[in-house]
Amino acid sequence: MEFKAYIYCLADLVLMATSLIYGLKFFGKRNYLLGIEWLVVTFSATNLLINALTGEHVFYSISLFCDAFSRAVGVPVIAVAGMMAVTHRYKPSITADVMYVVGALAVTVVVWTADFMTAPKPYFYLVMWSLFSVYLAYVAKRLLSVGESLNAVSVILALVSTQAIASIYDFYRIPGDDDQMIFYIFALLSWSYMSVTLYYAYCALERAQKNEPDLNPGYALRGLERTPQ
């Protein structure tokens, strides 16, 4: 096994560990949308590692499907909806959580299998991730507004790194990287960094919400009842 293959496996293990740990932490906060998406990433990374160690293509196919889920809907829609708990006080019901996941699976199946999506698929992934990056910029702005500059910088770094990965994923090959292993090393580490960064950004905004109950424009806490202004 080449040296870069060992680095690739190590990067995959890092993603498996971070997405699992912080996915479970989100479950602990009862944010099931973020928890589920992070565990989908764990499952994808696990199958990718098994493929690297065994060469069995079925595990690579499973990982690619999970990757399509995360790129198409999982991160741009489900993760954003989960983060909106601390940016917009949006807390969907369990039923809504299930509908998000079922809807995301349906969209992924269409994107993955439909002939009419073959040509526009790479552009669809890029547009969806770019919309997610716009939301991350908003998260960074909110963090700055509550004095969390370090977390804001961390979110911007996650934005830049993952947007760079999304922008070249289907459109550019690193010279000499015929097997794309170098690209995947950077991609795995970028996603790992994002999974950690968004957890601490979430916690920072959650603390700010508790300390300043009227942080979200349009709502005020009056006694024990939150009412629209």
TrEMBL record:
Keywords: Membrane, Transmembrane, Transmembrane helix. The chain crosses the membrane at residues 6-24, 31-50, 62-86, 98-117, 123-140, 152-169, 181-202. This is Putative membrane protein YiaA. It comes from Cupriavidus alkaliphilus.
